[in-house]
Amino acid sequence: MKIILITVIQIFSSLIYCQIPNGYYNGMDSLVGNSLKVGLHNIINDHIEFPYTSSSTDVWDILKQTDKDPNDSNNVILFYTGWSVNAAQEWNSGGGWSREHIWSKSRGDFGSKRGAGTDAHHLRPTDPSVNSAKNNRWFDTCSNPYLDNGNYTGCFTSTTNWVWQPRDEVKGDVARMVFYMATRYEGTNGEPDLELIDYLPVDNNTSDPIYAKLNTLIQWHYEDSVDDWERQRNDIIYYDYQNNRNPFIDHPEYVGLIWDYNVGINEKASSYDLKIHPNPTNTLIKIELENHNGSFEAELYDFNGKLLETTNSTFFCLAEYPSGVYLLKVAYGNKVNEVKVIKE
C-alpha cells in the first residue's frame, strides 16, 4: 500500500508540474509591444517574497529545490558551468556555492533586498570564483575562453569590453531571465524600473537600472530554446514559492511580440530569405524575398488561424484590419516561411 501511495503522489506531482495554469495569461492574445509588456507585468507583479538569508525559508532553500541535480538530490547544478556540488555546504567561506543575480544587483542598486534582490526567477547557484569573474558584466558575444583554475567552463569574456557570454546550454535561459526582470520590475511600489538597452554603456560602473545587450539576448533566446529544466523550474517557483511565473518560458513568442517584431514562428525571420517592412505597420507592408526572383504566394491569417486574404503582390494592405497580431505565410519555390505581423 505504501508503494502504491508513493506512486500516486509522484504521478499527481508530475501532473501539477506540467502545464500553465488555466487562464493565467487571459487577455494577452491580442496585445503587442509595450501593451503586452504592461499586461504581463500586471500578471506577474506582487509575487510572494522571501528573504535572502534567514532561519526560515530563504533563497538558499529555494535554489536547493529549483536547481537540484536530477542525478543526486543532495546536490545543486551550478548555472554557468553545469558542475554538480553539495547543496548543504551553501557559501562555506567561499568553498561552496554562491547565489548569482543574473540581472546583476548593482544594475539598479537593489542589492539582496526582498523583491528584485531575492527573486528566484533570476537567482541561480554558481561557483564563487566563476561568479566573481562574471561580476556585473553585460551580456554579449565574446571570444576569450574563461578557465576557472584551469578548468573549462564553456563561458567567455573579452579583453576589450566588459562583457560575458555563458555556455551555449544556458544562453537562452539567461535571456529569458533578463526579459522576465525587465517585465516584472517597472518602478512601482518603490521597486526599480529595469530596462534593456541595445548598446554597451561607456560607464561599466553605472548603477543605472539597465542591462545590455538586447539584440544579443534576443539572438540567444532563439538559439537556445526553452527546455524541460526551465519549465520545471518555472513550475516549482510558481507552485511552491512565489506564485508567479516567467512568461517567456511559458510563451517564448512574447519576446518577439515585445522586443523584436520580425520573428518567425520558430526562429527569427531574418535568418530566412523572407523580410517584411515596416513591422509594425498601420497600412501597407512590403514583402521582400532575398535570393528569389520568381513568383510567390502570401497568405494572411488572424491570430486564431483563420485565412483572411491571399496575394501574389509584393505589397500587402492591412488598412481594413483591426489592430493586433497576424501571421503571414509566404510560399516560394519549395519553401514556406512564416512571420508575425503587427497591425498598430
Main attributes of the structure:
2 domains, 9 helices, 344 residues, alpha+beta, four-stranded antiparallel sheet, Immunoglobulin-like
Topology readout:
Layout: H1 2-16, H2 33-44, H3 59-66, E1 68-69, E2 72-77, E3 84-86, E4 98-101, E5 123-126, H4 128-134, E6 138-139, E7 144-148, E8 151-157, E9 163-164, H5 171-184, E10 195-197, E11 210-212, H6 214-223, H7 228-242, H8 247-250, H9 253-259, E12 274-277, E13 284-289, E14 297-301, E15 307-311, E16 315-317, E17 324-332, E18 335-343
Parallel strand pairs: 6-9, 10-11
Antiparallel strand pairs: 1-2, 2-3, 4-5, 7-8, 12-13, 13-16, 14-15, 14-17, 17-18
Summarize the structure.
With 344 residues, the chain is of the alpha+beta class.
Tell me what the structure shows.
The protein has 344 residues and is α+β, with helices and mostly antiparallel strands. It has two domains: 31-259, no CATH class; 269-343, Sandwich (Immunoglobulin-like), CATH 2.60.40.3080. Helices cover 27% and strands 24% of the residues. The protein is built from nine helices and 18 strands. Strands 15-14-17-18 form a four-stranded antiparallel beta sheet, with no helix packed on it. A three-stranded antiparallel beta sheet has the order 1-2-3. Strands 12-13-16 form a three-stranded antiparallel beta sheet, with no helix packed on it. Strand 12 (274-277) and strand 13 form a beta hairpin. The longest helix has 15 residues, at 2-16. It is globular. Residues 1-16 and 262-272 have low confidence and may be disordered.
